[in-house]
Specification:
globular; about 20% strand; single chain; alpha/beta
Length: about 190
């Protein structure tokens, strides 16, 4: 099987989210395509491609305007038990979590993947570390959802000159003490 056909088949599986064994035979034997996929991962082809794409993007667009966004998502990984984890949001099924940082244009600049049962703060730090060749001397903005509203992530951002703009996590909110509401008769 030629590398181009294998890559197209891999992209088809990733785009549709289908299981490898459902790959249409016209795209190649599922075991062959999956074997080539795993071999390419071990060779670092996908991580090298990501790095080349980010470097090309930065060469064409500069270092950006200092505005970034980060988020995570979880997905099932029933056969990846050696490096996946029980997903707390999917009834404890095996899964993975992906963390991504994008710029204002939505271009992916950094990515990390790991077990679904890891806290978002672990992924945030790993993904921020993957944001290579960026000037950490200038202050930048990092927009996140409420999962990243924690003291740990605020400290990580501060250490790398990022201002964290995260939605308030209501579980971390402290109740207002001695709050009295006016009594209205009527």
């Amino acid at each position: 099987m030629c590398s181009r056909k294998a890559l197209n088949s891999m992209l088809y599986v990733m785009k549709t989210g289908m299981q490898w064994h459902y790959l249409p035979r016209v795209l190649g034997a599922p075991s062959t395509v999956h074997g080539k996929f795993r071999h390419w991962i071990k060779l670092g082809i996908f991580s090298n491609t990501m790095e080349l794409a980010v470097n090309y993007y930065k060469a064409c667009n500069g270092n950006g305007d200092g505005w970034y966004a980060s988020d995570t998502s979880s997905s099932k990984a029933p056969f990846a038990s050696s490096w996946s984890g029980k997903n707390p949001t999917d009834r404890g099924k095996e899964g993975t979590k992906k963390s991504i940082i994008v710029d204002r244009n939505g271009a992916p600049l950094a990515l990390s993947v790991g077990p679904a049962n890891s806290h978002d703060s672990k992924f945030f730090n790993d993904t921020l570390d993957a944001l290579k060749n960026y000037n950490y001397n200038d202050w930048k903005i990092m927009a996140c959802d409420s999962a990243d509203d924690s003291k740990k992530i605020k400290n990580i951002c501060y250490a790398k000159n990022f201002i964290l703009l995260a939605s308030e996590n209501t579980r971390n909110a402290k109740p207002i003490k001695n709050h009295t509401s006016p009594h209205i008769d009527g």
